[in-house]
Design goal:
By secondary structure, the chain is of the alpha+beta class. It is 34% helix and 24% strand. It has a 6-stranded mixed sheet, sandwiched between helices. Strands 11-13-9-14 form a 4-stranded antiparallel sheet, with helices on one face. It binds zinc ion.
């Protein structure tokens, strides 16, 4: 079965993050075990989802880890010209949910697995299939805990998110957080006698924007990114019931995406300081009012040196140009933090085609990825 046939099969599992991925995992498990791989499955608490880790060749540290997530984003509200969970081909383009992000790479991993099984390896090839990446790199953490405790520890990790087969050495780290602003309710006719939670929230938004302005004008920079500095952004706000009521609560969801030179936790701490100052101001009059900040999710950034051996190897195998950095997050930062190895991101397709209706990957991109992974298996066999 080649990578296109595998992609056809993988797309048919509707592994939207909110649903189970066990069907796909069972299919991959059966295939890899049949090839002679050592397979470990690390499931979630209720058993509805699982990570799968498989190894070929000598057992132990070293070798290469190929990694991809099995979940895909939903198709709700999107207009597709065909069934998103049945692969369709047109003019060398393979359409379907996850074709680009990132079942194309998973398909190439399975092709490489057959090649690894067919020859003796001097160093191991490891494969990792994770769940719940699309909701904040959630699922892989359980697998990484096991690997950090028990090994193996590969020499190199390749995350196959779509980069058009260019080799990415970095992405920003991210914290998603929620500010819950509490005021004191009242009749709007007496508004100044109450404490307006929406006004409190907008004061915090102003502080966030002031911090963003200062970072953009005088903060640290990394020219590898389209936006070469750390970004702050409010993405959701909710508060108020009716115009004639002073709102009692308002919530703000915001995020920090930090370059390696900045620390997202430090920036969050500074924002918490802003919230504490605003709280102190309103508490003179309203002891129950204030702002509480909590972290919703976080993952570390990725920053692998472009002058590393790992980059030189993958660049040569992928026949890629110079290093790039990607705007989207990956599980790479978590792998790097947990296992302390160089991590690179390189995979077929372009993220512009991910998450959209009529998502696709080209046969040409899959062929380039197959060639890179065949070269990788060849290296491990030497
Ligand atoms: Zn992805």
């Amino acid at each position: 079965m080649d990578s296109v046939a595998w992609l056809d099969r993988l797309i048919a599992f509707p592994t939207v993050s909110r649903d189970s991925n066990r069907g796909l995992i069972a299919c991959v498990h059966e295939y890899l075990a049949g090839l002679g791989a050592r397979v470990r499955v690390v499931g979630n608490a209720d058993g509805s989802k699982a990570n799968l880790f498989a190894s070929f060749g000598p057992w132990g540290d070293g070798g290469v880890l190929l990694s991809g997530h099995t979940d895909v984003v939903p198709v709700d509200g999107q207009v597709w010209t065909h069934d998103p969970f049945r692969m369709t081909e047109r003019d060398g383009l393979l359409f379907g949910r996850g074709a680009c992000d990132m079942k194309g790479f998973l398909a190439c991993m399975l092709t490489a697995a057959a090649q690894a099984a067919a020859r003796p390896l001097a160093r191991p090839l490891h494969l990792s299939f994770s769940y719940d990446e699309e909701i904040g790199c959630v699922g892989v953490r359980a697998l990484l805990d096991v690997l950090a405790a028990e090994g193996p520890r590969p020499d190199l990790c390749l995350i196959g998110e779509p980069t058009g087969m260019q080799v990415a050495t970095g992405h920003k780290g991210k914290i998603s957080a929620r500010a819950t602003c509490c005021g004191v309710a009242g009749h709007s006719a007496l508004a100044p006698l109450a404490c307006n939670a929406i006004h409190l929230a907008s004061d915090l938004v102003q502080r966030l924007r002031a911090r963003q302005d200062s970072i953009a004008s005088t903060g640290m920079r990394d020219s590898g990114y389209d936006v070469p500095y750390t970004t702050l952004h409010v993405g959701r706000i909710g508060g108020g019931v009716a115009l004639n009521m002073v709102p009692e609560t308002c919530t703000l969801d915001f995020e920090i995406r930090a370059i390696a030179a900045d620390s997202a936790p430090e920036i969050l701490a500074a924002i918490a300081g802003d919230a504490a100052a605003l709280t102190a101001e309103v508490r003179h009059r309203f002891p129950a009012a204030g702002i509480r900040i909590e972290t919703i999710n976080a993952y570390p950034g990725l920053d692998t040196p472009a002058n590393s051996e790992a980059f030189a190897l993958v660049r040569a195998l992928a026949e890629a140009g110079g290093p790039i950095k990607v705007a989207f997050g990956t599980e790479g930062g978590l792998f790097q933090a947990a296992l302390g190895m160089p991590v690179l991101v390189c995979g077929p397709g372009h993220m512009a085609q991910g998450h959209v209706p009529d998502e696709f990957v080209s046969r040409a991109q899959l062929a380039r990825c197959d060639a890179m992974l065949a070269g990788m298996v060849g290296q491990l066999a030497v």
